[in-house]
Model the fold of this input.
Amino acid sequence: MYGRYGMSYWKNLATELEERFGGEGTGTFLYDQPLGAHTTLGIGGPADVIYIPAAAEALSFFLGRTAEKDSPVFFLGQGSNLLVADLGYRGAVVKISAEDHGGIKRQGEMLRVGAGALLPTVVEFAAAEGLSGLEFAAGIPGSMGGAAVVNAGAYDGDMGGVVTEINGMDRQGRRASLRGEKLAYRYRESSAQKSGFLVSEVVLALKQDTPERVKDRLAENLKERRASQPLDVPSAGCVFKNPPGKEAWRLVDEAGLKGVCRGGAQVSEKHTNFIINRGGAKAADYKQLMEEVVAEVERRSGIHLAREIITLGFDDNVAN
Ligand SMILES: Cc1cc2nc3c(=O)[nH]c(=O)nc-3n(C[C@H](O)[C@H](O)[C@H](O)COP(=O)(O)OP(=O)(O)OC[C@H]3O[C@@H](n4cnc5c(N)ncnc54)[C@H](O)[C@@H]3O)c2cc1C
Done:
């Protein structure tokens, strides 16, 4: 199924890129492939095209061309915070891969990390170097770029506390940087997400400690995570943000929703802010269950739960 841009539009664009940058400089185009395979939930239909760029030049050109035509583009990391609609996404998904954009470089107490680097790899790298500051991220899946954009956090820490600079491109493909106040970090929010910024590199300011001490703190956080979260079944982590002064899981629990199922989607019995795919869940089941949880929690407590999970392709196939 193709959107108003049609398969020939994307194929022509791919050909144009390959003529300019060569196959290796361009990267890979995948047509009509289920996005579920690119998410931890394993749910969701196809994008018109998935573009996995090999190099910045080709990516910049791609963004410029698609911005001129106002064609829909969504940036994807590891899809660990993402629910994709059953009908997929009518547009292009740009996937920043670990293979092509996963470098990690140490400069003093700073790390320069490619946006595609897997967060667990970055956390391990920092620990081996005895650099402290990322212990809160023990066990958070996903990419460095995704974590920096959504301001991933746990155990009283978040990316906003360690990220000093984000480098990448604006929606037109022009190189751009965000630093300090311009990053506008708030709880699970950043300016990068609001402005549609493509992150290619993240700079982290850490503190020298010893590998042993950093590894001990990581192990403690991991132990706690394993004890409290359903890590052996597909999920996208916490579905709802914690309202000020409250814990979303507790509100869901108190609303009597633990274990409730809609199709293959289920409010986890282990952690009630996780909705898991217990097998064959459709995005429609998942979305319905999220909506029912919001309504029931609001009815019981008067508190509206805002979503932490990002959805793609639902409202007229537009990212929301
Ligand atoms: C078991 C489990 C546990 C989790 N625990 C936590 C937790 O403790 N704390 C927490 O905060 N999250 C948690 N999560 C959610 C998720 O892992 C994080 O939000 C993660 O940082 C998302 O990274 P990603 O690469 O998978 O991003 P995606 O899911 O691919 O994308 C998330 C958002 O980031 C944007 N994005 C991704 N990459 C880029 C890029 N290069 N440039 C621009 N935009 C980009 C996307 O457009 C999207 O808006 C958990 C998830 C799971 C499955």
Q: What stands out?
A: Residues 155 and 207 are 18 Å apart (CA to CA). The first helix runs from residue 6 to 26. The chain has three domains: 6-95, 101-226, 230-312.
